[in-house]
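forwarding from the other thread:

> can someone predict this with protoporphyrin IX containing FE?

sure thing
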Amino acid sequence: MALAPAAGQRRQDMAQDSEIARGDGTARSARTFTGAGQRGTRPGRLWGWIESRTGIRALAYAVPEHANTIWYILGGITFMAILISVASGVWIAQYYNPDPAAARESVLFIQNEALLGDVMRGIHIWSAYIAVIGAVLHMVRVFITASYKAPREVNWLVGVGLLGLIMFGAFFTGTVLRWDQEAYEAMVHNMELASLLGAFGGFFSDAFTTSVSMLPRLYIAHVSIVPLLLVFLLIAHIFLIKYHGISPTPAQEEAGEAPGGKLPKERQTASYATHARKMLGYGLVVLGLAGTLAVLLPGAIGAAPDPAMEITKPSPIYYWMYTPEAWFGVNGVLYAAIVFFGLLVLVPFLDRTPLRRLRRRPLMLGLGGVLVVALTVLTIITAVTPVVSHLE
Ligand code: HEM
């Protein structure tokens, strides 16, 4: 008996909190989010119970209107693609064997015999592509709206780390696990690059230990080290987004409406609940898209690796590095990565004016343009040229 009024009071307090957070006192979206409109009905009572026990209403905090447009949900869509990739990865890991003598056979087992193996493997591969493409599009949005400017420079750097991690940690190690010809060549590249890095590359080289071969070590990286780092960086990214709030639009900032790079409370008239709902909706679209692609374009499994040959190109995601490799040898991969990621790291420190519209930031307009043209041209050259032998 004594607990009931306390829970009711807590609910009332939380409702007031979300009204205060909205600044305009209407709490319209908070009510929609919590389903309070249907109080008295069975689903309404169930939802009320969930709210009071979990505090989910706290998600209905105020955000600027533009935060709920697709451009500002691209990061959330990338997040959903990562979640789908993790869930499908857990499924196929039940059937994968990282022993080099059995790895490729186990991938064939996943594709042809395991329960839902082909669909889950396809969803895993395609959601990984969607995550990389989503992260790049999200970064382009942040770049165009100059959201990396003070006070969000550190979050831009965390983002660069996330991009590197999903492209070279998750995606790359995943490619090697297939243990066909392309996978094997990717791993040999990994080892040659490690030797170029000297002491820094030790961990990624074959010589690090004689007790476990490279494939099981890359598997451990793929299923534990990389996901742990990803969780750590995502927590930092999300903390900083919450701490600084979503950046104002370039027009709002240049009109002086956002002192300190943040819209005042009374201008934040939308709800994060809407953002979260849209994110879940787009997440279902990503799942549907990955599932459809899994059926229409199942992930290929090449011939068993032959160490004497070099016959494949990497995944299209790395095409921009393959052409520099043809020009400079394996060093070319390193040069391409250093130039690309080095420029990304420099962005917030090169562009320090308060101007936010892209057309008023000629240096960034030029840098962005040069990068897009260079990446496109390098990718096209790789696509139209025959395979070249790069390895010693
Ligand atoms: C794994 C990849 C990533 C995930 C899951 C992710 C997630 C998010 C989410 C959910 C937001 C909130 C708003 C939005 O969606 O735009 C955001 C904001 C932000 N992200 Fe990312 N992000 C990723 C990669 C990146 C990259 C590659 C960069 C840049 C190099 C970056 C820089 C930023 C910045 C500066 C903000 C604040 C933007 C603002 O306040 O307008 N993120 N991110």
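The chain has two domains: 3-60, 64-310. thats all i got for now
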